[in-house]
Structure formats: C-alpha cells, structure tokens
Design brief:
Elements (H helix, E strand, L loop, with lengths): L1 H23 L1 E3 L1 H5 L5 E2 L4 E8 L13 E5 L2 E6 L2 E7 L5 E5 L16 E3 L4 E5 L4 E6 L4 E6 L9 E4 L5 E4 L11 E4 L5 E5 L14 E8 L9 E7 L5 E6 L4 E4 L2 E5 L5 E5 L4 E8 L21 E7 L3 E8 L6 E8 L5 E5 L4 E2 L18 E6 L1 H10 L1 H4 L4 H4 L11 E7 L2
Length: 416
C-alpha cells in the first residue's frame, strides 16, 4: 500500500507540475490592453543606446522611408526608389551599393523589402516576377530564388535554416489553397503546414468600393503593411496584412504567430510546436469576425512578435474610427509582468535624456534598430538647450549634422 501511495503521490505531483507549466505559458493581456500606459521608458528594457551617423556621399544618399537589416558587421539600408546601400555597422562608413533597382536580369523591384538569412549570408530582394533576387553580403549576385506557385501575392517569407525557406501564404484579392509552405532554393515545396487559410474570395474589382494602404508604423509593424478593402456590402471591410512579419528568430529557432491564433509556435522542418499563449481576452478578434467593421472597433489581433533573451514584444491594433490605433506590448520573462503603450509614442529615453526612439521589432544580436532623421535631431537641439548641455559627448556631436545628411542609425541593446 505504501508503494501504491508513493506512485499516486508522484502521479499527482507530475499532473500538478504539468498544469502549472501550462498556466505559466499563458500571458493574460486583457487587463493591460484595457489600460495602456502613456509611455514606455528605455531604462526598463535597454542596457544601452548607440547612435551611428551613416556616411553621406554623392554615392550613398539614402532616400525616403528607409528600412534596414543587419548582416554580420554591415547594415543594409533600402529606401524608396533607391538601391540598397551597405554601411559599416560600427562606424557608419559607406561600403558600397548592393545590386540595382531595375528590370534587368540582376535587378530587383524594391530595396525596402530586403531581408537577410544570417545562416547562409544571403540577402533577398523582391523580383519582378514570383521570385527573389539573391545577393551575398559582399554585394555579389547569387542568382534567382523561385517561389512556390501557391504562396500568393501578399505572402510573408523567412528562413528555417541555410537551405530551407518558408512562406505564410496570403492573397490580396482572394483565397489561397495552402496555409504555409517550406521550400528549397529551387522553389520546390518540401512541406505543407496545417492551418486555417482564407476560404472566401472577392468576386472581383466590381465588389470593391475603395482601397486604402497603411504603412507598417500605422498598425505597429516593423515592415509590411495593411491594405484595407472596403466592399460594397455594408459593414464589411477586408483587411489584408501584406508581407506581415509573422515570423521571428531567437536562440537559433524560428517562431511563428498567426493573427487569428493566440499561440506562438516554434516552426521546424517537421511541423509546428505550440509554445506561449498571448491571451487578449475580450479584445481578441475571432477568425469569423475579421471582415466586420463593427468588430474591429474594439477588437484586434497580435500581428507581430519579437523574442529576446529577456523579453517577448508584440504589437496589435484596433480600428475604432477613421484611423487605426496601434499599440506595443512587452512581456518581461524575469518578472512575469506585461506593459502596453501606444506604438507611436515609442520609448522615452531616460537613459540618455535624448530623443524618443522608435525601434522596429526585429531582434539582431539582442538589439533593436531604428533611424533618427537629421532635421529632427537638429530641431531637438534647438528646442532643448538645457537637456542638450547634459548629453554624453558621443551624443552631443550629433548637433553638427547637416539637414540633408543621411539618417542616424540607432542601435538599442536589450537587457538580459
């Protein structure tokens, strides 16, 4: 009897442990969503912030809407109607141009949509057909990456490893047959992942009353954006997340979060493993409500995640009136606490007493990056002479910038 009791006790303790583990994976967000803070402070999340002015020459001028990715010791900057430019990550010195923005055999359609596979060192640019144009980090043309036929024209892409890519399938106008696909460097499909794809489709352009586009910052995304299709049916609006960053990478793993599923999955070549659950409670927009104008006034989705050693960051948005309202959330693994705040407010810099920063939520070596424009920096120095007198020398030197200089790269290192 004593042995049986010990076995029963062990089973009970195991069951309790399993239940507790499941509970610890659930992050309850309803209360924090209901009462967001006005601001988030840099001291709560970042160990340091560095400012790297990017060299300005006739050959290295950065255009509008700059986007950046980090590859090794370089930062690659794309901008509107400009080719991709490479700079030294530490010094900001201009290194050279990567490829060209043209319709030639080695040209690409956009430099702002560049992304990098750090395991292979390959830079991917969207081509003019269903393809990516590949370049090395040194600027060498590596050929064309074919894409699966069923990925759709609003699909999101990332890497699983140095040889395997993955696509979250999405179509601008209609349904797609596959949910998510992994494929090789020839575009051959290796695996189809289970999930709920859009099953309805618009009949055609005649069903659409108007189309509006919102950039990433309007909905809390570091890249991609939203296309809002207002249909002629009263109260029905289709929201299409275009190239949304549904994937993130941390600690050698690939993570995935679907807009209409609370669970963050670890994505492997074999399948998807469930991890943390981001529970929005009454604020969660259900799959069947996604085209409802009324539902989106008070409900939303978590559309981007980023994980680091200590934090799980996420973003979500509502559409109450004529403008979308985006928010940033941060879960602290050390304390178990979550904070939320309007995305547009960024982080108040109480570490340096300098300008607010608005880092994108893509983790590079436990860092987040963003830009500050020279005109905004110079305006800040004019309006804050007292605060400026207390700045560190490496920040104070930014007052010598010219208005037409290239932007300053901000590198914010996260706490561990």
């Amino acid at each position: 009897m004593k042995c049986i009791s010990l076995v029963c006790l062990g089973t009970l303790l195991w069951a309790c442990g399993e239940k507790q583990a499941r509970q610890e994976k659930v992050i309850l967000l309803e209360e924090k969503i209901a009462a967001p803070q006005e601001e988030l402070k840099t001291s709560g999340y970042f160990a340091s912030i560095a400012y790297v002015p990017l060299e300005t020459t006739d050959s290295s001028l950065i255009g509008n809407r700059p986007m950046a990715v980090v590859g090794g010791d370089k930062v690659y900057v794309g901008s509107s109607k400009n080719a991709c430019l490479a700079f030294d990550l530490k010094t900001g010195k201009f290194i050279g141009c990567v490829g060209s923005l043209d319709k030639g055999p080695q040209g690409y359609r956009s430099s702002t949509e560049v992304w990098v596979n750090p395991e292979s060192g390959v830079l991917y640019f969207p081509g003019w057909k269903k393809e990516f144009i590949k370049y090395s980090r040194e600027g060498e043309f590596l050929g064309v990456q074919k894409l699966p036929e069923n990925a759709g024209d609003a699909a999101s892409f990332t890497y699983l490893n140095g040889n395997t890519l993955v696509a979250r399938c999405e179509s601008f106008m209609g349904k797609v047959s596959d949910y998510m696909l992994s494929f090789d460097d020839k575009g051959k499909v290796l695996k189809s992942y289970p999930g709920v794809s859009r099953t309805d489709s618009l009949g055609g352009v005649s069903d659409i009353a108007s189309i509006s586009f919102y950039g990433g910052s309007a909905v809390g995304l570091s890249r991609g954006g939203v296309a809002l299709l207002k249909t002629k049916e009263a109260g029905k609006e289709r929201v299409v997340m275009m190239s949304q960053p549904v994937f993130c990478h941390w600690n050698g793993k690939t993570y995935y979060k679907d807009s209409y599923n609370d669970t963050v999955f670890t994505l492997t070549e074999q399948g998807m493993l469930p991890g943390r659950v981001l529970d929005m409670g009454k604020y969660r927009l259900a799959q069947e409500e996604r085209d409802s104008r009324e539902a989106r006034k008070e409900k939303g989705n978590i559309n981007q995640i980023m994980e680091s050693d200590r934090f799980l960051m996420f973003s979500y948005f509502f559409y109450p009136e004529e403008e979308m309202q985006a928010y940033r959330g941060i879960f602290d693994k050390n304390t178990g606490e979550t904070e939320t705040a309007p995305f547009e407010n960024g982080f108040t810099d109480d570490l340096n007493g300098f300008m607010n920063i608005h880092p994108v939520m893509e983790n590079w070596d436990n860092c987040l990056i963003s830009f500050l424009q020279p005109i905004d920096i110079l305006t800040w120095f004019e309006e804050h002479p007292e605060e400026a007198s207390r700045l560190k020398p490496e920040i104070s030197r930014l007052k010598d910038l010219k208005e037409d200089d290239n932007p300053v790269l901000v590198v914010a290192r996260l706490k561990k």
